[in-house]
Specification:
This protein is of the alpha/beta class. About 35% of the residues lie in helices and about 15% in strands. It is built from 13 helices and 14 strands. It has a seven-stranded mixed sheet. Strands 2-1-3-4-5 form a five-stranded parallel sheet, with helices on both faces. Strands 11-12 form a two-stranded antiparallel sheet. Helix 4 packs parallel to helix 5. The longest helix is centred in the first third of the chain and has 21 residues.
Length: about 450
């Protein structure tokens, strides 16, 4: 089980989600009119002389035949411009850092990362930043992006909105083409107050729908909370779980996913019997809520929430002791807070960003990192999302033929079919990709694929 110290730390990790702020739009620069070039007057014409008398006409001589003019040579055709390169993800993942080809010589593609290495976001951004750096190494070894070497510029925002705003300006001064952003809403808002409309910012791990704002060039690397809550409700109905109870906290994430789940579940014919309060990261005894649930008629088939992993384990155990046989179905907080390292979660279901297929891209990427660096990447799916964010930016650079931030941002938003580690990413005018929502079941302490949506 998790210690009290860790529980408090986890509370700090997710508490920042509750803050909301407004996105400030940045203003563009004005351009002046160019001066018209000066003109020079033409000289006045002189008076023409009188013409001389015509001479006597001479006998015409036989004209010699004029030589035939040589045929004009065919102009040499201009060479066809080179077709844009294709990103071969499998070849990038297979790149051998000990035997790289010639380094690309073009202007660098600079990608910033406003990463949160504090207790708030370090559980995601520390491994994601390592993953981003390593994926760029592989990408450059493979050949770069259309002749451009890729450079990562990583800065720590320290979990602080004021620092986040300062870091955002530093990254703009570094002439980055795009920025990877942190997990939580308030620090992302501080970044957007500096970067909005000026440079695309892709949050690696956030699922907050309010951050999916293409007009501000504010994007996500993953599905939204709306998508995962809808998928959870559809999964429950398909499993013939027609009654549910939920646990929530008013506000974003912990409250929002439950609101969406409830609406979708009941629209599909399910019934939510009740919603119960808890404090993320702090509640360690659910006995009062469990006693009330045990007295419900009918009994719930499923419990849905964005519970942290250790809290889900405690609630599941207390429900079992009270002989409430409801299934446990939780949001992606389960994996974000180390669900597979917590006891008592066997048989739980949860939504996730990808599935670790034995020979899938995410597993190959993680194995490659471990072999090259001698360590493991925690928060596996978020490490894969960091690589996907870089692929999305690289694809937009190739399609637009530009390193200009606004041009690249618009190309990302218009993009379809970017082949990534977590699936095929298609923005198609929106602020988040329509990547799949995976539902896992914990079987023998390991994820087993239960369903895929989208």
């Amino acid at each position: 089980m998790t210690t009290n110290t860790t529980r408090k730390r986890l509370f700090r990790i997710l508490a920042a989600v509750l803050a909301l702020a407004l996105v400030a739009a940045a203003c563009g620069d004005d351009e002046g009119d160019a001066e018209a070039p000066a003109t020079t007057a033409a000289p006045a014409p002189t008076e023409a002389p009188e013409p001389a008398p015509d001479p006597e006409p001479a006998e015409p001589e036989a004209a010699e035949p004029e030589p035939a003019e040589p045929e004009a040579a065919e102009p040499e055709s201009e060479p066809e411009p080179a077709a844009p390169m294709d990103l071969d993800v499998d070849a990038i993942l297979a790149a051998d850092l000990a035997a790289c080809g010639p380094a690309p010589q073009g202007e660098p593609l600079r990608i910033g990362y406003a990463a949160d290495f504090s207790d708030l976001g370090g559980f995601v951004d520390i491994p994601a930043a390592k993953a981003a750096e390593y994926f760029v190494e592989l990408l450059n070894c493979w050949g770069g992006v259309d002749g451009h070497p890729v450079e990562m510029v990583i800065r720590d925002i320290e979990g602080d909105p004021e620092t986040a705003g300062r870091v955002a300006q530093e990254l703009l001064d570094e002439k980055v083409t795009a920025i990877l952003g942190p997990a939580f809403f308030d620090v992302n808002q501080a970044i957007l107050q500096v970067t909005a409309t000026r440079v695309p910012t892709i949050s690696v791990s956030s699922t907050e729908p309010l951050l999916a704002d293409p007009e501000q060039l504010s994007l996500l690397a993953s599905f939204t909370d709306t998508a995962q809550a809808v998928a959870a409700a559809q999964f429950a109905i398909e499993k013939d779980w027609t009654t549910a109870v939920t646990f929530s906290v008013p506000g974003p994430y912990f409250g929002y996913v439950v609101e969406v789940f409830t609406e979708e579940f009941e629209s599909l014919g399910g019934q939510v019997l009740g919603d119960f309060p808890f404090v993320p990261g702090q509640t360690t005894d659910f006995s009062a809520q469990v006693n009330e649930i045990a007295g419900l008629t009918p009994q719930p088939d499923v419990v849905y929430s964005a519970l942290l992993a250790f809290q889900a384990a405690i609630l599941g155990a207390q429900l079992s002791e009270a002989e409430v046989g409801a299934e446990m179905l939780v949001a992606d907080a389960f994996t974000a807070t180390g669900g597979y390292f917590v006891d008592g979660v066997e048989g739980f279901f949860h939504t996730s960003h990808t599935f670790p297929e034995p020979d899938g891209r995410m597993v190959r990427f993680l194995a490659s990192y471990e072999a090259a660096k001698g360590g493991v990447l925690e928060s596996e799916s978020y490490s894969a999302l960091a690589a996907d964010a870089i692929l999305v930016i690289s694809d937009a650079v190739i399609r637009s033929g530009s390193l200009d931030p606004v041009t690249v941002g618009e190309a990302i938003i218009a993009g379809t079919g970017v082949d990534g580690l977590t699936g095929v990413l298609t923005y198609d005018g929106g602020g988040s990709p329509n990547t799949p929502v995976y539902v896992h079941e914990v079987v023998n302490g390991q994820p087993t694929l239960a369903a895929v949506y989208g």
